Amino acid sequence: MSSDTGLLQTIHDRIFAALKLTPSAHAHTHGYQSLDSNADMAAEPHSRADEPAFIKSDVDDANYGTTADPAKDTRASSSSSDAEAAAVAAGLSHLEARDTRWYSYLLTADFWAIIAIGQILALCITATNTFTSFLASVNTNIPAFQTLFNYALLTLIWLPLALYHHGPRKMLSIALRDGWKYFILSFLDVEGNYFTVLAYGSTNILSAQLINFWSIVCVVVLSFFLLKVRYRLLQIAGILICCGGMGILLASDHITGSNGGPGQDMLKGDLFALLGATLYGISNVFEEWFVSKRPVYEVLTFLGIFGVCINGVQAAIFDRNSFAGATWDGQVAGWLVGYTLCLCLFYSLAPLVLRMGSAAVFDVNLLTANFWGVIIGTRVFGYVVHWMYPIAFVLIICGLVVYFLAGSILGDSKKPWLGDNQKDGVAGIGTAKLKALNEARKKGLAGGAEGEA
């Protein structure tokens, strides 16, 4: 019987040697793992009942990295994720439990940041419109080609940052998995720019700007049905007040005759403006969804890469005839550089408003662009400011104030589509998730949770 046991032991050892496994101290002593777990635990009180009898050899560990137990990384990652989720829940609970009044959000830094950044965006739009007017004045009408440089600059700025954070392999994985989504976002954005520029060439300014109200309608409807956003009556009232201010601006343009007069083809121009406003509205909602879930550098990188491809093909097809009659000199190059820099700044700051506010707040902020356009026009084109303009501007700002009345301390930064405690969102600048983490850290509730700036 002892010889049979010795033979089995020899076979046992050879199997372990072939599999590059070494018996644990306890198993090596007894030859086999005991079937009586209670006896084992009694003999070795520090071992667990579910502890494996055999471990991988040092040679095998070298092939998998420095960690002897890969499950520890998974457990550590899960523990970190649980700690972050708990910290976010505690932070959100603490923020929303504050004793707030109807004006509380208006006293926060976020509200004033939204107003300030929104006006910078409006100035950027005004500047791009001004540079486009300069280009048109010398018969350089290349709407697709002039926007191509913006997407190229976005790629040059944000791609290195994305590669630094993600690495090439992860970026490739994201492109294979979500590239089609980013392609749709870029396509909507490129075409929105293209058809809006075409509209201003065929209809008058008054008609084009009136139809641009449609983008706000698209944003509200899409956010309601697709993103499950529920607007309060005060928010609807705020949007309507802003639109009323814009209406006063347009009325003053009509009174002073600065609406551009009759267009070359009003019907075609109005249809282009309607299509451009629709595409803008859809792309703004889509981008808000993206930047609430993914880092800004990733979103802008893919927006730039796909934008270059789409715009390049479009420029090669539709703008090549315009190149023959266009003017090319140092002055035109300067206008193109100014247009590109202003538009790139616009694209880089837009995600902050979409995170801290919403696509609706983003579009409403841009209504003040017409006011800034007239201010610049008085200095550049000799326009005269009508007395209705200051009233209109104040109305639009008041509409934004009304929009945030009686809201939560988080405003629109807490997104309903991100789930409980914003678990599906990224902890980035301007997000409710990062605010909750910062609040939890401040109150000593965060543990080891970390946010992504």
From TrEMBL:
It is a multi-pass membrane protein. One of its GO terms (cellular component) is membrane. Keywords: Membrane, Transmembrane, Transmembrane helix, Transport. InterPro entries: EmrE-like, SLC35_F1/F2/F6, SLC35F_Transporter. Residues 60-79 are annotated as: Disordered. It comes from the Eukaryota. It is found in: Membrane. The chain crosses the membrane at residues 102-128, 148-167, 206-226, 233-251, 271-290, 297-317, 332-354, 361-381, 387-406. GO terms for molecular function: transmembrane transporter activity. Its main location: membrane. Belongs to the SLC35F solute transporter family. This is Uncharacterized protein.
